[in-house]
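Two proteins were folded this term; both appear here.
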Amino acid sequence: MAVRLGAQLAGIEEITAQIGGLKERAAHPQPALETVANLLELHVEKTFETEGTHSGNVWPPLAASTVKARTRRWGYYRQAPSGGAGPRSPILGWTGNLRSSFRRGHPQHVRQVSGSGLIWGSSVFYGIYHQSTRPRSRLPRRPPLAFRDPFQQRELMFQPVRLYLQGVPVGAIEITMRARLGL
């Protein structure tokens, strides 16, 4: 008595083509990195909107001295406020310059995408004092770019690259990630 077994693979050409495209996508990750930069821009905007709540780092309220200076328009607060800024809010929003500097098109926005990486952020000099945990800084920590937890950071920065390498179209990646991240 003889037993014969046979197997037929269907769709092997499609799988081979996808695997073949992996090398090309890995060599040219710029579309995925552009998506990451777009998501970072939306994430920081949401962080400013919610005064840190979105990123899990609720910003401390303004000091009484700052509220007084804003009310009396002393020092830095002599500058015209933007976007309806008042004595108590928005935090980090008197002129809107720091917030705007994280948007593409602003003269102090930093966005460099290449085959080897992504450099993204703001070159506004005082932003580092809010972002940093430096012990000598008198400013309270109000990080414009922060993450609620490692999962949120991974979803925002690494998941788009992983999906791109798997062959998911860039447009679909951005739409999916916006929905997953609440952006």
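Next, the second protein.
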Amino acid sequence: MSLGNISVSYIDILCKTLKKLGHSEQQLLETFGVNRATLTSPNARVSIPKYMRMGNYCIGETKAPWFGLEMGKQTSLTHLGLAGLAALSAPNLKVACDCLTKYELLNTYNVRGKTSFCFDSQQAVMSFYSIKPYNEFNHFIIDLVLSGWNNAIATVTGRDNLVAQVCFEFAPPSYADYYRKYFDCEVLFSQPCNQLVLKKGAIDCQGLSACGTTFTMLERLAIAELDIVQVGLSFERKVSRAISPLLVGGTPALEQVAEQLNMAPWTVRRRLIDEGVSYQQVLNDTRCDMAKTYARDTALSLGEIAYLLGFGSATAFQRAFKRWTGLAPGGYRHQSRL
């Protein structure tokens, strides 16, 4: 199982940010085997682990741990594909934010979760899922997303004063002072979730480039593309995707997964049986596939992987891993990297 993938348009953001900070992107592309043809391919993707390695390579080259914040500033709505273009032509900020989250899957997929946009009469919030445990290796991902959203809101409305608060799950990093440069609002760390809170009434702001006919056309295209992306998935695969983000810190029950799929538990159970599998089988297979991928493609400790897969201890995880593969996770990691 892949931990997720992301459009190569995000590599273009890395390149633009390197240039902005006075560095050439050529060495980055050569180091990670990315050619110019790949960068112009609309369907080309890069794995999440590889993208994280590329981002950290850039941080090392520029000596700028705030690289992700600058990436967000260098992100244009065109980098976000149909989701970004639909947002740019949307009638107001509410519809634009909805497009950015609703059509996210067209540009990026992560087993850890998906972004969301929620609003009521008092508050509107864009939220990014947790990617704990946090370290210097993945801070830049959260920085990129929230800084990018902040930039997108200003682009859509022509106003840079619509964000009331930005929240980060992780503790203040070594470069905490730099957040003031990128966010003209309250910035909080060690919060329950990663989110951007809009000021009251902000979602009603009209889009600067709003165009009804263009928006309708782009939304139709986005809906059609989303259907194509999802239609090829078996129901077992859809259940597995729903399980993945719920594993962190515990084992999800069928009822939790059914809620994510907006189905009754008995319907989920019946449809899985129709495909010849049980919920427990899908849960075990999902854990096994993710365990092998985490061990092979990341530098996470065994304790961290155990937590991400819902095991009570590293010992319990190691026993399960050996049962699945015949190898201890450390041995599997070493063997896969030879």
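The chain has two domains: 4-225, 235-336. The longest strand covers residues 124-128. These notes refer to the second protein only.
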